[in-house]
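Re: [help] complex structure
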Amino acid sequence: MSTLLTQIAMESTTSSDAVSMAGWLLIALPLAGAAILLLGGKATNSFGPAMATGLSWASFGLGVVALLQLAAVDPEQRSTHQVLFDWIPAGAFNLQAGLQIDTLSISFVMLITFVGSLIHVYSLGYMSHDPDKRRFFAYLNLFVASMLLLVLADSYLLLFVGWEGVGLASYLLIGFWNHNPAYATAANKAFWVNRVGDIGLALAISLMFATFGAVDFASVDAGVGGASSAALTAIGLLLLLGACGKSAQFPLQSWLGDAMAGPTPVSALIHAATMVTAGVYLVVRSHAIFEGAPNAQLAVAVVGAITLTYGAIVGCAKDDIKKALAASTMSQIGYMMLAAGLGPIGYAFAIFHLITHGFFKAGMFLGAGSVMHGMHDQVDMRRFGDLGKYMKITWITFGLGWLAILGVPPFSGFWSKDKIIEAAFVGEGWRPWVFGLAALLGAGVTAFYMSRLFFMTFHGKARWTDDPPQHPHESPLTMTVPMMVLAVGSAALGLILGPTNIFSNWLEPVTGHHEHHEPVIAVPVLMAATLILVALGAGLAWVRYGRDEVPVNAPAGNALTQAARKDLYQDDLNEAIFMWPGIKLVRSVIWTDNELVDGGAMGLGKLTGAASTRLRRLQNGYARSYALTMLAGVVTVLGALWVMN
Amino acid sequence: MENFPWLTVMMVVPLVGAALIAALPAAMAERAKELALAFSLATLAVGVGSVAQFDRNAISQFQLSEIHEWIPSFGVSYALGVDGISLTLILLALILTPVCILAAWHDVPEGGTREKNYFAWTLLLLTFMVGVFAATDVFLFYVFFEAMLIPVYFLIGGYGGPGRQAAALKFLLFSLAGGLVMLAAVIGLYFQGPGGKEGFLISNLTGLDIDPTVAKWLWVGFFIAFAVKAPMWPVHTWLPDAAGVAKPATATLLVGVLDKVGTYGMLRFCLQLFPEASKWATPVVIALAVVSIFYGAFAAIAQNDMMRLISYTSISHFGLIVLGIFAMTSVSGAGSTLYMINHGFSTAGLFLIAGMLIARHGSTKISDYGGWQRVTPILAGTFLISGLSSLALPGLSSFVSEVLVIIGTFSRYRGVASIAVLAIVLAAIYILWMYKRLMTGPKPDGVEAKDLNWREKWVVAPLIASFLILGVYPKPVLDVLNPAVQRVLTEVGVSDPVPVVPAAVSTGSEK
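Output below.
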């Protein structure tokens, strides 16, 4: 009990009033934007998109204020808990809605509002001719608000609200052009797979309540010390299931490729930079639980390692530029998951890579959108080629993102991804070798498929379709300026935050301090090996897709290529395991309902019916006969009572 | 205002309205709906007034009480009163009735006597709905319980779609069968009590020392009636038929309010009057509830008729409500009682907006639609919001109640809750798949339909407001429900499972 009290004492000292800014405004501004646009209808068509963009920037401005306020105080004071209102008082369950503003959440706030606002700006250009533009911006604002709620929430249940809120925004935006039935199906698939993950989150919350009697971060963290490792392992694995759904990690990754049905700014913001990284946030936010449950932590790392490999393999075979980028996203989040599963040594790098990835991947998605914009929405890279000449800005900005994801020094990915590879090689026994080699080889494969994508699109010979005739052109400034800003981030963010350890130190109040450990292979060797693999991957891609002719029709390919094109048969597997048995089950329920249950009940009913038919003959109608029955019943009862009395 | 008979007035106002409408000369028949709306709104006003008199910290179980001798020689009293649970259910009925009347504005286009009677029956139903929740005399409850069937029978049998006669009869026979069993139990219960002039009062029948075997039989008698009403598997089959052919407004009142008598009855009568028998039966009830959850969900997925689909979703949701009640924790109990309210509103949204769609295109078959988001965007949007509330999307009302049921049940029955939680995936499937088939896809050729008009927007607005308000700030309702739920649990003599780690620290769990 005394340890608990000291923990409580510690808890109260770490929470300060460092941030005086009203945190709820961060969420309320974009939420108000969504409400105004959806309720205001056509009247808001003229100013709606601009207003939505402005509100997103306003939220960013507030985020900066909060950031500066946090930065102004001592590191151990950099946490503010703001209680909003009594949310759910239900018997033994008593929860307030509140915001947790600390260095971790504010880092996300910066990423979400900055990249989010840039993508609002980009969408002003990209969606300018869409008749439903207003609805699009409403959903974007709804997304930003939900995502901010997700990262600012002070309890798992409030986080869950944001968690499903971003899922809703994702559903609405994937299906934004749902007049195409395939897109509507993709939206449903994303929601359903995410709901499978949500089972994990819902049960984790239930188990937290059963274990700790509370579901807010502070109480759970304080109670971890007293909980059994079995309970913590179960909670950890359930949280991981939730994270897998949201972050498209194995085995719940199948929805992300289809989610590319959404407009490209959506793919950039939701399905690359922010929402899909929420699973990583969840794991890092719950680090106290995972540290008390080594097996669950190991599971996180395993899932990350599998997914990073899986995504990389799939990425090599995709010809659709957005689907190749989606596979890459899955793989990069695998890196983050792996880092988060490595324990204290990995948390800061997981988040660091998440931030740099948010910049370079969003930038590349916007670049892909710019290419599609100039090429009549063509997405088949076999029909691109030589576009670098015609779309200089897109080429350069995309190129910076490409260098960043490859991990070429000094671009951002070098500082974040290489750190994860290093951290993966730390440890004892089989783990550093398995995780480290997965991360290392993954870097080489990443270099191959990203270079393949880059060369197929921007270099080589033009392989454009004639119908309609293509006149590739650069996109308007509303689109290219955000791309440039993100490209600057892709180039420089790592250099600014990485070598100085600013970012690791910044996160330390949340993720805790960790001792430095040497990897099982010396760091310089690792760096050299990584760079050599990257160079090999990129070189191979150049030979096959830059120098050599790229066939406009995909060659048959070997078995692995064919499997990778079909996402390693993930959908077929899901259909075989879940969908077909599910359909059979549904059919048998309906048969049972009609034949057995209703049949049995109606058999009884017919007996009664026969009786009432006799009454009906006397009384001309069901209702009267019924009324009579009732009256007779009441009279009988009263008579019986009277006799007994 | 202390002795003002709030509850009686809430029953008399719609009764007077019904009589007035029924007595209208044929020439003035088109005034019927306006009168009905006015009377239902007046009743709602009385209801709102009564809330101000309600003290959620009161010591006695029932408030706003009225007791008059009715048939003293048989121990029957005209006794009314409410606790938090019945008060909120009455308010649900009071709010939904004007909404339904507004939705039913053009339900009887032929007008005349038929139209008049339609609205008169609806108001009469409101009287009985208030009565059944307000009765604190078991016999009076039984009278209202059976009386409710009459207006519903005529509303379905007289005004429904094809197959209405058979569906109405099926509804009646199922209810009647359940009701008669309950009648036997009601009489049996009386003889276990103290008897006398007030022998049927709930307060006189609570905490009796009944022979366990007798108690079990009586419990079964009550439970069967409530299970039919709720409706639970396997006595649910009347519901899809009845709600499938009924007018959307009738279906809403039937599923949204009336069926709540089942789950309300389980709390008020099964649990409170027969605590030991309830514990004895818990494993069976929980098993039936879980079967209902999945059976309803799977059947919903398979439907091609939207009214039937929505009915089956309710069977699934009722399964969750029953599960929360019989898990017997303060958390799941609060969740279930809140769920009764939330389910009423979200089902109303689904039924009524589906009705608006059917009114435009004439078919209840989902396969006859597609692409309607491009035809009627507001209708589609509001339907989606109702659906999202039904699938318990956080931020909308059902989420709070569903998560409380799951969390509360989990604290006592981990395995059961872990299975029941799969319902959240199935709910997403039946709702979003229905939405996809109805609303998405290319704009249908040759279909011209106007989007929601002002009347319809006024139908939808209060429902969506309820999703948002109860979803974001459920505290006012929970504050009213909590003491009532706690009281029932205390009568049963159960206490909440204790958390493994005492973590009564910091922000969230203080107080």
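The beta strands of chain A are 79-90, 93-102.
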